[in-house]
Amino acid sequence: MRFTTLLAPIALTAIPLVQGGLISYGLCQTGCNTVAVACYAAAGAVFGTVVAAPAAPAAVLACNAALGTCSATCATVVLLAPIP
Description:
The chain is an all-alpha fold. The chain has one domain (19-78). It is built from three helices and no strands. Helix 2 (22-43) packs antiparallel against helix 3. The longest helix is centred in the middle third of the chain and has 22 residues, at 22-43. The radius of gyration is 21 Å and the shape is elongated. This is Cysteine-rich protein. Residues 1-20 form the signal peptide.
């Protein structure tokens, strides 16, 4: 048996378990949605009521794009961040 085969399990148990934290993810998503609601209000629309994307104003489409970017950032950064 090789020395590295014996050492690998011991080394892996020494690494502390770290999770991103679902609460942090929820708070991040809540912040994204709050900004999206404010963006819709500034565009003169109500969040969640715009049905057809081609008929939507350009400002509402920009709000949707910003919400998508913010949500993706939450998913990639906050879920992987070392928050115990």
